[in-house]
Write a structure and sequence with these properties.
This protein has helices at residues 7-23, 27-44, 53-71, 96-107, 140-152, 164-177, and strands spanning 50-52, 75-81, 89-91, 114-122, 126-133, 181-188, 192-200. The protein has 205 residues and is α+β, with helices and mostly antiparallel strands. The protein has two domains: 1-46; 49-200, Histidine kinase-like ATPase, C-terminal domain (Heat Shock Protein 90), CATH 3.30.565.
Length: 205
Protein backbone atom coordinates (compact mmCIF):
# COMPACT_ATOMS: atom_id res chain seq x y z
CA UNK A 1 0.00 0.00 0.00
CA UNK A 2 1.30 3.43 -0.93
CA UNK A 3 2.53 5.39 2.09
CA UNK A 4 0.46 8.38 3.14
CA UNK A 5 1.93 11.66 4.37
CA UNK A 6 0.83 12.43 7.92
CA UNK A 7 -1.65 15.35 7.78
CA UNK A 8 -0.14 16.85 10.92
CA UNK A 9 3.25 16.89 9.19
CA UNK A 10 1.74 18.94 6.36
CA UNK A 11 0.07 21.29 8.83
CA UNK A 12 3.32 21.81 10.75
CA UNK A 13 5.16 22.38 7.46
CA UNK A 14 2.73 25.14 6.48
CA UNK A 15 3.26 26.78 9.86
CA UNK A 16 7.03 26.52 9.43
CA UNK A 17 6.79 28.13 5.97
CA UNK A 18 4.82 30.98 7.49
CA UNK A 19 7.45 31.48 10.16
CA UNK A 20 10.28 31.54 7.62
CA UNK A 21 8.39 34.03 5.45
CA UNK A 22 7.80 36.28 8.46
CA UNK A 23 11.47 36.11 9.43
CA UNK A 24 12.37 37.31 5.93
CA UNK A 25 9.67 40.02 5.92
CA UNK A 26 7.68 38.33 3.15
CA UNK A 27 4.37 39.21 4.72
CA UNK A 28 2.09 38.04 1.93
CA UNK A 29 3.61 34.55 1.89
CA UNK A 30 3.35 34.49 5.69
CA UNK A 31 -0.37 35.31 5.47
CA UNK A 32 -1.00 32.71 2.76
CA UNK A 33 0.83 29.96 4.65
CA UNK A 34 -0.99 30.74 7.90
CA UNK A 35 -4.35 30.86 6.14
CA UNK A 36 -3.73 27.52 4.44
CA UNK A 37 -2.59 26.03 7.76
CA UNK A 38 -5.78 27.25 9.42
CA UNK A 39 -7.88 25.72 6.63
CA UNK A 40 -5.96 22.47 6.81
CA UNK A 41 -6.39 22.28 10.59
CA UNK A 42 -10.14 22.75 10.13
CA UNK A 43 -10.19 19.91 7.61
CA UNK A 44 -8.33 17.41 9.77
CA UNK A 45 -9.86 18.31 13.13
CA UNK A 46 -11.99 15.55 14.60
CA UNK A 47 -14.87 15.75 17.02
CA UNK A 48 -18.49 16.48 16.26
CA UNK A 49 -20.00 16.63 12.78
CA UNK A 50 -21.55 19.94 13.84
CA UNK A 51 -19.74 23.27 14.15
CA UNK A 52 -20.89 26.79 14.93
CA UNK A 53 -21.86 29.08 12.08
CA UNK A 54 -19.05 31.33 13.29
CA UNK A 55 -16.49 28.55 12.74
CA UNK A 56 -17.89 27.76 9.30
CA UNK A 57 -17.81 31.45 8.38
CA UNK A 58 -14.18 31.73 9.47
CA UNK A 59 -13.24 28.72 7.34
CA UNK A 60 -15.08 30.27 4.39
CA UNK A 61 -13.37 33.63 4.93
CA UNK A 62 -9.99 31.88 4.80
CA UNK A 63 -11.00 30.35 1.47
CA UNK A 64 -12.16 33.77 0.23
CA UNK A 65 -8.82 35.31 1.21
CA UNK A 66 -6.98 32.87 -1.07
CA UNK A 67 -9.45 33.46 -3.90
CA UNK A 68 -9.10 37.23 -3.49
CA UNK A 69 -5.38 36.86 -4.18
CA UNK A 70 -6.19 34.82 -7.27
CA UNK A 71 -8.93 37.01 -8.74
CA UNK A 72 -7.86 40.41 -7.36
CA UNK A 73 -10.57 42.99 -8.13
CA UNK A 74 -12.34 40.85 -10.75
CA UNK A 75 -14.82 39.61 -8.14
CA UNK A 76 -16.46 41.49 -5.29
CA UNK A 77 -17.75 39.56 -2.28
CA UNK A 78 -20.55 40.58 0.06
CA UNK A 79 -20.99 38.56 3.26
CA UNK A 80 -24.18 39.15 5.24
CA UNK A 81 -24.42 37.38 8.59
CA UNK A 82 -27.08 37.63 11.26
CA UNK A 83 -24.77 37.89 14.29
CA UNK A 84 -27.48 36.60 16.62
CA UNK A 85 -27.13 33.10 15.15
CA UNK A 86 -23.33 32.92 15.00
CA UNK A 87 -23.27 30.16 17.63
CA UNK A 88 -25.98 28.02 16.02
CA UNK A 89 -24.65 24.59 15.01
CA UNK A 90 -24.63 23.42 11.40
CA UNK A 91 -22.88 20.50 9.66
CA UNK A 92 -19.19 21.05 9.05
CA UNK A 93 -18.38 21.95 5.42
CA UNK A 94 -21.84 23.31 4.65
CA UNK A 95 -20.97 26.82 3.46
CA UNK A 96 -17.46 26.74 1.98
CA UNK A 97 -18.24 24.07 -0.66
CA UNK A 98 -21.17 26.19 -1.89
CA UNK A 99 -18.86 29.19 -2.21
CA UNK A 100 -16.22 27.10 -3.96
CA UNK A 101 -18.86 25.86 -6.40
CA UNK A 102 -19.78 29.48 -7.20
CA UNK A 103 -16.16 30.33 -7.98
CA UNK A 104 -15.28 27.26 -9.99
CA UNK A 105 -18.47 26.93 -12.05
CA UNK A 106 -19.85 30.44 -12.04
CA UNK A 107 -17.22 33.14 -11.63
CA UNK A 108 -13.87 31.68 -12.69
CA UNK A 109 -14.05 32.91 -16.30
CA UNK A 110 -15.10 36.46 -15.48
CA UNK A 111 -12.53 39.14 -16.27
CA UNK A 112 -14.40 41.90 -14.43
CA UNK A 113 -17.68 42.70 -12.73
CA UNK A 114 -18.03 39.44 -10.83
CA UNK A 115 -20.14 39.48 -7.69
CA UNK A 116 -20.68 36.91 -4.98
CA UNK A 117 -23.24 37.36 -2.20
CA UNK A 118 -23.24 35.08 0.85
CA UNK A 119 -26.13 35.45 3.26
CA UNK A 120 -26.72 33.53 6.50
CA UNK A 121 -29.87 34.54 8.33
CA UNK A 122 -32.71 33.36 10.51
CA UNK A 123 -36.34 33.28 9.45
CA UNK A 124 -39.37 32.42 11.55
CA UNK A 125 -38.92 28.66 11.21
CA UNK A 126 -35.62 28.12 9.44
CA UNK A 127 -31.96 28.88 9.25
CA UNK A 128 -31.44 30.15 5.69
CA UNK A 129 -28.11 30.03 3.83
CA UNK A 130 -27.86 31.66 0.40
CA UNK A 131 -24.93 31.77 -2.03
CA UNK A 132 -25.59 33.89 -5.14
CA UNK A 133 -23.26 34.75 -8.01
CA UNK A 134 -23.65 36.65 -11.28
CA UNK A 135 -21.45 34.28 -13.24
CA UNK A 136 -21.96 31.67 -15.93
CA UNK A 137 -25.33 30.41 -14.76
CA UNK A 138 -27.20 27.40 -16.14
CA UNK A 139 -30.13 26.88 -18.45
CA UNK A 140 -33.29 25.32 -17.03
CA UNK A 141 -32.53 21.84 -18.36
CA UNK A 142 -29.10 21.72 -16.74
CA UNK A 143 -30.21 23.16 -13.40
CA UNK A 144 -33.21 20.82 -13.19
CA UNK A 145 -31.01 17.84 -14.07
CA UNK A 146 -28.54 18.78 -11.35
CA UNK A 147 -31.31 19.31 -8.82
CA UNK A 148 -32.80 15.91 -9.66
CA UNK A 149 -29.43 14.22 -9.17
CA UNK A 150 -29.03 15.93 -5.81
CA UNK A 151 -32.60 15.24 -4.67
CA UNK A 152 -32.55 11.57 -5.69
CA UNK A 153 -28.92 10.96 -4.67
CA UNK A 154 -28.13 9.82 -8.21
CA UNK A 155 -24.50 9.42 -9.31
CA UNK A 156 -23.13 12.22 -11.43
CA UNK A 157 -23.16 11.83 -15.19
CA UNK A 158 -19.77 10.45 -16.39
CA UNK A 159 -17.46 13.33 -17.24
CA UNK A 160 -19.60 15.84 -15.36
CA UNK A 161 -17.40 17.86 -13.04
CA UNK A 162 -19.96 20.27 -11.68
CA UNK A 163 -22.22 19.56 -8.74
CA UNK A 164 -19.87 17.36 -6.72
CA UNK A 165 -19.60 19.85 -3.86
CA UNK A 166 -23.36 20.45 -3.89
CA UNK A 167 -24.08 16.72 -3.75
CA UNK A 168 -21.67 16.31 -0.83
CA UNK A 169 -23.32 19.13 1.11
CA UNK A 170 -26.76 17.67 0.48
CA UNK A 171 -25.60 14.20 1.59
CA UNK A 172 -24.31 15.58 4.90
CA UNK A 173 -27.52 17.53 5.50
CA UNK A 174 -29.68 14.50 4.76
CA UNK A 175 -27.60 12.27 7.02
CA UNK A 176 -27.93 14.67 9.96
CA UNK A 177 -31.33 16.30 9.41
CA UNK A 178 -33.32 13.70 7.45
CA UNK A 179 -36.22 15.68 5.94
CA UNK A 180 -35.78 18.75 8.14
CA UNK A 181 -34.09 20.81 5.43
CA UNK A 182 -34.54 21.98 1.85
CA UNK A 183 -31.96 22.44 -0.91
CA UNK A 184 -32.82 24.67 -3.86
CA UNK A 185 -31.02 25.89 -6.97
CA UNK A 186 -32.22 28.80 -9.10
CA UNK A 187 -30.22 29.78 -12.16
CA UNK A 188 -30.39 31.55 -15.49
CA UNK A 189 -27.79 31.05 -18.19
CA UNK A 190 -25.27 33.91 -18.47
CA UNK A 191 -26.97 35.76 -15.60
CA UNK A 192 -26.81 34.14 -12.16
CA UNK A 193 -26.92 31.07 -9.95
CA UNK A 194 -28.45 31.00 -6.49
CA UNK A 195 -28.14 28.08 -4.08
CA UNK A 196 -30.37 28.14 -1.00
CA UNK A 197 -30.41 25.91 2.06
CA UNK A 198 -33.25 25.92 4.56
CA UNK A 199 -32.65 24.06 7.82
CA UNK A 200 -35.50 23.69 10.29
CA UNK A 201 -34.62 25.41 13.55
CA UNK A 202 -34.14 23.10 16.52
CA UNK A 203 -34.17 20.05 14.26
CA UNK A 204 -32.99 16.94 16.07
CA UNK A 205 -29.73 15.40 14.87
Amino acid sequence: MQAQINPHFLYNTLQMMGGIALAHNVNEIHSIANTMADMFRYNISGGSDLVSINDEIRHTENYLYIQKLRFQDRIQVELILDESISNVLIPKFTLQPLVENAFEHGLSKMTRGGKLVIRVQETLDHLEITVWDNGEGMDMERSESLMEQIRNHNPLVPGQNFGIGLKNVNARLRLLFSDNYKFKINSKLKEYTEVKLYIVKNAEV
